[in-house]
Design goal:
The protein is 51% helix and 16% strand. It folds into four domains: 142 residues, Rossmann fold (3-Layer(aba) Sandwich), CATH 3.40.50; 108 residues, Hect, E3 ligase catalytic domain fold (Alpha-Beta Complex); 110 residues, no CATH class; 104 residues. Strand 4 and strand 5 form a beta hairpin. The protein contains 16 helices and 17 strands. The strands form six sheets. A five-stranded mixed beta sheet has the order 2-1-3-4-5, sandwiched between helices. The chain has a three-stranded mixed beta sheet with strand order 10-15-16, covered by helices on one side. Strands 11-12-13 form a three-stranded antiparallel beta sheet. Helix 7 crosses helix 10, helix 11 packs antiparallel against helix 14 and helix 13 crosses helix 14. The N and C termini lie far apart (94 Å).
């Protein structure tokens, strides 16, 4: 009996539904082989693979098996279901076809017959048609995806927090996932406070049972991508274009922008929650050798009044490369920085301008919130009236019970969404006021605002005012300001007390 291999491929679920499923192909090829006296030695299957390239695992495995055949262990034929199941690239098909022919191996298609009979022209024509069909289908798919985008739906699968609904492939839409969406929304809300790092968010998501498909924690880059994805506040993107989508947003644009701001700041400062946090890490430099200071805790019983430990900043070259810079107490150096910030103030004209800007922003915010809130109230009233009429219809017996339940759930879902929207408006107003309060306090009294600020916000203020602080003999001897502060100084918008500026004869940088 003659021996043969069977090769099968299906690329999509849709093709499986059209009769190209692996089981259908396998049954047809096996029956074809049996009817023509072939013994099937092995079946090679590529599931979910494109035929535009030969880089398919099962195909390469079959080619390797053929290359290892000896004189006593031969294969007379390779049976396929259809040419386009085997190859949709004329060059690849022609190369494989000629290789099989040189080994006296027939390539037989259940649909097209023995392809090795006669010249290679006809098989190549079949392959050309298959390639053309593939290109046409690809263009149709691209056109369908672009049309889907134009209609307001994301062509690609939705991100975590959403689930696909509706038709197949290009016809699918999406909706917030009942379980994941509230968690993703809370992720944004927590991160926007600035009190959590990506690493902490990763652990928190695991606790909420939000993991990758393999059950492992979401990678840091995945969480970063989530926080940077405008899809969550209603924007879809496709091939460089973006527009408002028809899907239901999970968060507001304001919350998204706040998270982007925190992400940018954390990326600038490489802010991660450390076991031991040091406020000035990254800002302090050694005036002797130029190295950036590091910090560490020293523990000893003599530091009992300070919790049994004391923190020190020091040059990393100390005691190793001859740098004479001494250790400096954390509290002592941070006190010097506090005094420096106490000496900085904004001009009254600038304070007045900021106050007016804040007043204008607050008035606009209030008007916008009032308008949005009234819109929600109107929608809520309309849906409540619909619900009341529906309930009356049930009592009067003019509506079927299953229809009532379905419509009642739909209305209640809309009412819940409106209630969440109203809460978002209230939250947005509170966040706006908190931000304005912080900005006004900052401009009116830099030192006090810095003192009262939480750790992460102090880091923001330090980065705003200082590029680096040079230390010599336990004293800040030089301050390098960022360009914006230098410009504001030149315009007398930022005023730095003379007692904090270097003497004219010194080499300190103002």
């Amino acid at each position: 009996m003659k021996n043969c291999y069977i090769y099968l491929r299906v690329s999509t679920d849709e093709q499986a539904q059209q009769g190209f499923s692996i089981e259908n192909q396998k049954r047809a090829c096996a029956e074809y082989a049996q009817m023509r006296g072939y013994h099937t030695k092995q079946v090679f299957i590529d599931d979910g693979k494109s035929a535009r390239t030969t880089e398919r695992a099962a195909l390469q495995e079959m080619l390797l098996a053929i290359s290892k055949l000896g004189t006593t262990n031969t294969i007379e034929a390779i049976i396929i279901y259809k040419i386009d199941r085997f190859a949709r690239n004329v060059a690849d098909f022609s190369k494989l076809f000629m290789d099989f022919k040189s080994r006296n191996i027939k390539l037989i298609s259940v649909n097209e017959g023995d392809l090795t009979e006669g010249t290679s022209l006809i098989p190549n024509i079949f392959a050309s048609v298959a390639q053309w069909e593939s290109e046409v289908n690809s263009q149709r798919t691209r056109d369908a995806l672009m049309q889907k985008f134009r209609e307001g739906w994301q062509p690609t699968p939705p991100p975590i927090g959403y689930r696909s609904v509706g038709g197949d492939r290009e016809r699918k839409t999406c909706e917030p996932d009942p379980y994941e969406a509230p968690i993703i929304k809370q992720l944004f809300e927590m991160y926007a406070t600035g009190n959590y790092s990506i690493f902490e968010m990763q652990r928190w998501l695991v606790e909420q049972n939000i993991t990758s498909r393999t059950g492992t924690p979401l990678g840091h880059s995945v969480i970063d991508t989530i926080l940077n994805n405008p899809f969550y506040h209603g924007i879809i993107r496709w091939h460089g274009e973006s527009k408002k989508g028809l899907h239901q947003p999970i968060i507001t644009k304001e919350l998204f922008e706040t998270c982007k701001y925190v992400l940018a700041k954390n990326r600038d400062f490489l802010m991660r929650r450390r076991t031991h946090q040091f406020l000035l890490r990254g800002f302090i430099y050694c005036s002797e050798c130029g190295q950036r200071y590091t910090a560490e805790w020293h523990k000893h019983v003599k530091f009992k009044k300070r919790g049994g430990k004391i923190g020190y900043y020091h040059c990393p070259k100390l005691d190793r490369n001859g740098c004479p810079a001494p250790y400096i107490d954390v509290e002592e150096l941070e006190k010097q920085v506090q005094e420096t910030l106490n000496s900085i103030e904004f001009s009254q004209e600038f304070i007045d301008a900021v106050s007016q800007k804040a007043r204008d922003y607050l008035n606009n915010s209030r008007e916008r919130a009032a308008s949005d809130l009234q819109g929600c109230i109107n929608q809520k009233t309309a849906f409540e009236l619909k619900r009341n009429k529906l309930e009356d219809a049930l009592l009067e017996g003019t509506i079927e019970r299953d229809v009532f339940k379905r419509k009642h759930e739909e209305i209640q879902s809309q009412l819940n969404f409106i209630q969440e929207r109203m809460q978002d408006i209230e939250n947005r107003s509170r966040i706006d006021m908190d931000v304005l309060d912080e900005v006004l306090a900052f401009t009116r009294n830099v030192g006090k605002t810095y003192t009262d600020a939480p750790f992460f916000l102090k880091r923001h203020y330090l980065r705003f005012f200082f590029d680096r602080l040079m230390v010599k003999n336990k004293q800040i001897v030089e301050i390098n300001y960022p360009p914006i502060i230098a410009s504001l100084q030149a315009l007398r918008v930022v005023i730095i007390s003379e007692r904090m500026l270097p003497d004219e004869d010194s080499d300190l940088e103002p």
